[in-house]
Amino acid sequence: MQWFLDILRGAVIGISNIIPGVSGGTMAVSMGIYDRLINDITHLFKSFKRSVTDVLPIAIGVLVGIFAFSALIGGLLGVSVPWEADLSQAKAPFTQNRLTASDVVNEGVTEISLKHGDETATLKQTGANSWTFVDQNGNEKTMTGSALKFKRVNDVYELELSPVKPPLTKMPTIFAFIGLILGGLNVIFQRVKPKEFTGTNWVLFALFFALVVVLPLLSIPRAQTANVSFGTMLLMVVLGMIASATMVIPGVSGSMILMLLGYYEAVIGSLNSLRGGDFSALLVIGPFGVGVVLGIFLIAKLISTLLEKAPKPTFAAILGLVLASPVALLIQNSECFGVATVGNWLISLVCLAAGFVVSWLLSKLGTENK
Fold first, then answer.
1. Pair 272, 358 in one domain
2. Boundary residue ending a domain (129, 145, 161)
3. Which end of the chain is less enclosed by CB atoms within 10 A, N or C?
4. Rounded Cα gap, residues 35 and 14, in angstroms
5. d(CA 362, CA 183)
6. How many folded domains does the chain comprise?
7. Is the same domain home to 28 and 74?
8. What is the pLDDT of residue 221?
9. Are residues 72 and 121 in the same domain?
């Protein structure tokens, strides 16, 4: 039973690391296993058998959550959707199952009409390796040609790009994770009580609360596609270290950091390609995974020392990070409110309550087991 619960907790942590604005560390805190994970990681070599046995089901759950749900979560959030591409102006009909930007340009296609549901857009080549995406409202986004991958579906070619407007599934998904965060607050309040805060504790709380709220207000560039090269592989190691460090720190989203750096869709796209059988994506995911492991070990030691030497200030900072996460999520996804219907709001509130209950139960079970 304990193994099953740990796999479930790990899956929640894995899924949360996919969603920009949600921190895997926050989920670990909410489910009452944060201290345990940090302890296992920092004592891996001293108590190898015990640490591996304890952390293995959680690690399995994290991998399951990331690989099994990356496409689902991406679809629910509207990270990318299939646009039907009109390539009829090509000099010769295409017959390949997959096309790149170079393939279509070689056949004289430099402007492509796109359609997704009732949304339309135009894609124009503006440079040797640059294209401009113009939606039906005249909004423009610039992307590299390497980001364009066309896939043949029946008799048409589709291109995976972000939708013009957020899908109705995005807000319920965001609210479900806000519920997961709020449902685990009792775990933090068992460790630290705000009425016992000193002035220094309140300053730390405010600073780290502000840090998380400010991140979504920063300008987020268009995500890139990672081209396979030695330089890119080294870059993915560094990005993995940065992302994993923020995943370990509660309240700071590794996915959000990847978006700020412009590589969120590159990583998610590589994960989905790997799931689809494209093993060349391992040249991107592999180095990124190495960076993740290195980053986790480096930051876990620091967190462990802080929890041991200064537990109250550390948990004051963690409380600020965690309480700011729902605010950051609402700020970052405010475009959902413009398309939400009454039914969408009702479903979102149900998802909020469901997330709260799931997190509360998992954190309660985690506390009892400890």
1. yes
2. 161
3. N
4. 17
5. 9
6. 2
7. yes
8. 45
9. no
Distances (CA, A) of 101 to 89, 141, 276, 365: 14, 16, 21, 52
User: Which three-class secondary structure state does DSSP give residue 142?
Assistant: strand
* Residues 134 and 110 both lie in one domain: yes
Sign of CA dihedral 3, 286, 247, 163: negative
Summarize pLDDT for 17-72 with one digit per residue, the tens.
777 656 677 777 777 787 788 888 888 888 888 888 888 888 898 888 877 777 67
Q: Tell me what pLDDT residue 346 has.
A: 95
Q: What is the pLDDT of residues 292-323, one digit of tens each?
A: 888 888 777 777 788 788 888 887 887 887 78
What integer pLDDT is reported at residue 366 of this predicted model? 53
Nearest to 31 by CA among 366, 368, 276: 366
CA distances from 38 to 7, 45, 257, 273 (A): 17, 13, 21, 32
> Is the same domain home to 211 and 344?
yes
Task: Among 115, 138, 161, identify where a domain stops.
Answer: 161
Q: Are residues 86 and 73 in the same domain?
A: no
As a residue count, the chain comes to 370
What tokens does 75 get?
A: 């679809």
Q: Tokens representing 148? A: 């364009």
Phi-psi region of 108 (alpha: psi -120 to 50; beta: other; left: phi over 0): left
For the chain, the C-alpha Rg in angstroms (whole number) is 22
Please indicate, yes or no, whether residues 67 and 127 belong to a single structural domain of this protein: no
248 and 319 together in one domain: yes
Q: Which long-range contacts (CB under 8 A, 24 or more apart) does 49-57 make?
A: 57/2, 57/3, 57/4, 57/6, 57/7, 57/10
Which residues in the chain come in under a pLDDT of 50? 220-224, 369-370
8 Å CB contact between 100 and 148 = yes
